[in-house]
Design brief:
Blueprint: H1 6-9, E1 25-29, E2 32-35, E3 40-43, H2 46-49, H3 58-70, H4 81-92, E4 98-102, H5 105-124, E5 130-134, H6 143-148, E6 165-168, H7 173-179, E7 184-189, E8 192-193, E9 199-200, H8 203-216, E10 219-223, E11 247-250, E12 261-265, H9 286-301, H10 304-323, E13 329-335, E14 338-343, H11 348-356, E15 359-360, E16 362-364, E17 368-371, H12 379-400
Parallel strand pairs: 3-15, 5-6, 5-7, 7-10, 10-11
Antiparallel strand pairs: 1-2, 2-3, 4-12, 8-9, 11-12, 13-14, 14-17, 16-17
Helix pairs in contact: 3-9, 4-9, 10-12
The structure holds pyridoxal-5'-phosphate.
InterPro entries: AcOrn/SuccOrn_fam, Aminotrans_3, Aminotrans_3_PPA_site, Class-III_PLP-dep_AT, PyrdxlP-dep_Trfase, PyrdxlP-dep_Trfase_major, PyrdxlP-dep_Trfase_small
Family: Belongs to the class-III pyridoxal-phosphate-dependent aminotransferase family. ArgD subfamily.
Subunit structure: Homodimer.
Length: about 400
């Protein structure tokens, strides 16, 4: 296909939507990745919280191979065993009862927005349509979900945007109260805002938010696209907060790297979507749903919640310890294995140096380095990642001074 290093030199035929790192990855196994020149990397980004079981997890691979021999695709107008089984599994491990499958996080959130509006307009017969979301949030790149997203940069050049989205201040219940009107259909939020830099929702804020939703007949939508599937040490981040969302959206980690999205809702939402009111050609097709089932079974069998909780606590403690006196580190925070290290300066040059030193990590916003390793990550791997981080931060300070 391409010779070593060649891809970086040739003209690309892709739309330039990504500022790609100068690395061509060709192979992965557990927490390791290799580039086309044979260099290895410790992977602490897991394809953006997608490969929660590490790269090419064996049980999932075997299930995909079995399905590959059986059937790849038929229309959603037929019953599909893997799709039914994954929906039943998701209902049994969550506070929700029904699932709609699609192909990505944005589509799952789009389905949640549509479901919320239709529930009010068709089931309850009112005229509510507004969705309250939060500043610094991220909900996807379709026109509706980028409008829901509380960041200006994803909206530029796309006017006019769809109506019916308002933004409140995260962790500020008064701000939410001031946005509620007789048009409010739903409140949608991430419990840990990942994309913008690992901002955790406060317990008191989430409890009050849940009460507000109940009082005002507003649906509570939790976007678990990044936090779901064990990432925070529980299957879903909402379990940390003692609440029951009406709708949960999932994608990233659900099928270990095969494209899938899911919008899950409570029984009362059943009639929001009637026949023909929503659909997706590929949604819930056999390969990703087989992979999703195997992913969830593996998480439960290997008790990865316990592992991720312990590994996350260890990483957070160690990071806090070694970075405490570092003048360019202003905060270290996280939930489970979704960890953010906030610096006083922009992180992009540092991220590049971390990559060159063999540690793959991602930024969150402009000032945060995100650690999102596999849920199987070992203490040795965490120690190694922290050593590399400290070395690069030391060099950075040397250069600044
Ligand atoms: C990544 C992400 C999305 C969008 O998912 P896509 O699969 O890229 O469409 C939505 N919400 C959150 C919280 C995310 O992290």
């Amino acid at each position: 296909m391409y010779k070593k290093g060649e891809i970086l030199l040739k003209k690309s035929y892709l739309f330039p939507t990504y500022n790609k790192f100068p690395i061509t990855l060709v192979k992965g196994e557990q927490s390791s990745l290799w580039d086309d020149k044979g260099n290895s990397y410790l992977d602490f980004m897991t394809g953006l919280a997608v490969c929660n079981l590490g790269h090419v997890p064996q049980k999932v691979k075997l299930r995909i191979q079995e399905q590959l021999d059986q059937l790849w695709h038929v229309s959603n107008l037929f019953h599909l065993p893997t799709q039914e089984a994954l929906a039943e599994k998701l209902a049994s491990i969550s506070c929700t009862d029904l699932v709609f499958f699609c192909n990505s996080g944005a589509e799952a959130n789009e389905a949640a927005i549509k479901c919320a509006r239709r529930y009010h307009q068709r089931v309850l017969g009112n005229k509510r349509y507004e969705i309250i979301t939060f500043e610094q949030s991220f909900h996807g790149r379709t026109l509706a979900t980028l409008t829901a997203t509380g960041q200006q940069k994803v909206k530029e050049g796309y006017l006019p945007l769809p109506e019916g989205f308002v933004h409140a201040v995260f962790n500020d219940i008064q701000s939410v109260q001031s946005k509620i009107t007789d048009k409010t259909a739903a409140i949608m939020l991430e419990l840990v805002q990942g994309e913008s830099g690992v901002h955790l929702a406060d317990q008191a804020f989430v409890s009050e938010l849940s009460n507000l939703c109940e009082q005002h007949g507003i649906l509570l939508i939790i976007d678990e696209v990044q936090t779901g599937i064990g990432r925070t040490g529980k299957m879903f981040a909402y379990e940390h907060y003692g609440i029951e969302p009406d709708i949960i959206t999932l994608a990233k980690g659900l099928a270990s790297g095969l494209p899938i999205g899911a919008m899950m809702g409570k029984e009362k939402l059943r009639d929001a979507f009637s026949i023909g009111s929503h659909a997706s050609t590929f949604g819930g097709s056999p390969l990703p749903t087989a992979a999703g089932l195997a992913t969830i079974e593996t998480l439960i069998e290997d008790d990865l919640f316990e592992r991720a909780t312990k590994a996350g606590a260890y990483a957070l403690d160690e990071l806090k310890k070694v970075l405490k006196a570092n003048p360019i580190v202003c905060d270290v925070r996280g939930l489970g294995l979704l960890i953010g290290i906030e610096l006083t300066e922009v992180v992009n040059p540092i991220i590049q140096k971390l990559h060159q030193s063999g540690l793959l990590v991602l930024p969150g916003g402009t000032h945060v380095i995100r650690f999102m390793p596999s849920l199987y990550v070992t203490h040795d791997e965490i120690d190694l990642a922290i050593r590399i981080l400290c070395k690069v931060l030391r060099e950075q300070r040397g250069e600044v001074i």
